[in-house]
Amino acid sequence: MRADAARNREKLVAAAAQVFGDRGLDAPLEEVARRAGVSIGTLYNHFHERQDLFDAIFPARLAELDRLAAAALEDPDPWAGFAAFVEGIVALQAQDRGLNDVLARRFPLASELAEACDRGFAHLARIVERAKESGQLRSDFEVTDFVPLMWAMSQIIRESGGAEPAVWRRFLGLFLDGLRADAARPLPVPALSGDQMAELMRGR
């Protein structure tokens, strides 16, 4: 790649990270090109699909999930590890609207991003199982229940950010208290299957 082409690519990635962070993943690509100081044609020369940009930006950011998961699994208190992992993910959502969208949706054409998300769900499954085995997390909580929780927190972050950016912590505390085993009551319907959840995430 020529030096000028490499510079343009770097500018596009930096601009896309800013635009998606401010406006979410559906932000106009024309705005990305404008902030990068290049034409929309140059953008498409480097990134043929919108999801190619996602692959260039978000896998590195999602690597933070590996650190959060390692800390959760090392915590001697499985509930504390679970709660800290969930809080860490929601904190990432609150910091970056683009990442907020990434955690709530599926992007099959962005292979590196999909791999990073799959790795995050594998971490979550281990953390959930550990907390359930300790008797602290309600036994009927499933990994697929986590995604609607992220959807709810995503909406809270969007709606409350202008008034009180940290209010999501209050609602997360309410959610987490409802997941404690000693507060559990029978649920009226079962959790969604993995296939059902994947279909819902693709449709968002």
What does this structure look like?
By secondary structure, the chain is mainly alpha-helical. The protein folds into two domains: 3-48, Homeodomain-like (Arc Repressor Mutant, subunit A), CATH 1.10.10; 60-202, Tetracycline Repressor, domain 2 (Orthogonal Bundle), CATH 1.10.357. 72% of the residues lie in helices and 0% in strands. The model has no long low-confidence stretch (mean pLDDT 89).
Mean pLDDT: 89
List the helices and strands in order: HHHHHHHHHHH
The best one-word shape is elongated
* Sheet with the most strands, sense and barrel status: none
**So what's the CATH class of the largest domain?**
Mainly Alpha
Global Rg: 19 Å
Unreliable stretches (pLDDT < 50, length at least 5) are none
How many domain regions?
2
Judging by the overall fold, what is the CATH architecture of the largest domain?
Orthogonal Bundle
Q: Approximately what portion of the residues adopt beta-strand conformation?
A: under 5%
Q: How many strand elements?
A: 0
GO molecular function, one term: DNA-binding transcription factor activity
Domain HTH tetR-type: 6-65
DNA-binding region: 28-47
Protein name: TetR family transcriptional regulator
What topology emerges from the helices and strands here?
Blueprint: H1 3-23, H2 29-36, H3 40-46, H4 50-62, H5 64-74, H6 78-95, H7 97-104, H8 111-133, H9 143-160, H10 168-178, H11 194-202
Helix pairs in contact: 1-2, 4-8, 5-6, 5-8, 6-7, 6-8, 6-10, 7-9, 9-10
